[in-house]
Amino acid sequence: MKLKITSFALLLVVVISTAFIVPVRKPVSYKVDVEKSSLTWSGKKLTGGHNGTIGLQSGELLADGKKLTGGNFVINMTTIKDADKSDRLEGHLKADDFFGVDKFATSNFVVKKVAAAGANKVTITGDLTIKGVTNSITFPATVAWNADGSIAATADKIIVDRTKFGIKFRSKGMFPDIGDKMIYDEFELAVKLVAKK
C-alpha cells in the first residue's frame, strides 16, 4: 500500500511538473534583402570630414512574434565608397592604414541582446568584428513591422572607436603630437536592414 501511494505521489509530481512547462518557441528567421538595405559611414578630422556608403553582403533578423530577438549582418568592406567620389580616399580606406580589405574583405555584427526601450524602440548590444578584432557595442534602434510581412530595423547612430580595432592612423590618442593632421578616433555608422521570411 505504501509503495502504491509513493508511486502515485511521484506520478502526480511528474504530471504537475510537465503541465507547467512552457514550450520553447524557435525564433523565426528573416533574410536581409541587401538591395533594399543600406549602410552609411561618416568620419571627421580636425579640418573637415568625409562620408559615404558600404555594401551589405548578407544578414538575418530573428523574431519571436512581434519581438526582435537577434540577428547579424555581414559588411562587404571592398565596397567602401566616398560620397565625394575620391578614388584616393577610397583607396586609402581600403589600405592597411584603415580597413585592410585585401586581408579583411568583410566585417560583421552579431546581436547578443535586444532590450525594449519604448514603442518600436530597442537597445541592441552585440559583437562588431573589424580587421579580425571583436568588440562589444551598444546602440539604439527602431524596429518596424511592415504590412508586407517584412521587418525594417534602423539604427541612425552607431558610434565606433576605430582604435579598439587596431586602426590607429593619425589618432590623437595614439599620437599626441599629430597636430592639425589628426583624425578623430570615433566614426559613425547608420544601418537600415529590411528583411523578409
Automatic annotation (TrEMBL):
Q: Which SUPFAM superfamilies match?
A: YceI-like (SSF101874)
| Superkingdom assignment | Bacteria
Protein name, per record = YceI family protein
Please state every residue range assigned to the domain named Lipid/polyisoprenoid-binding YceI-like: 29-196
**Coiled-coil boundaries:** none
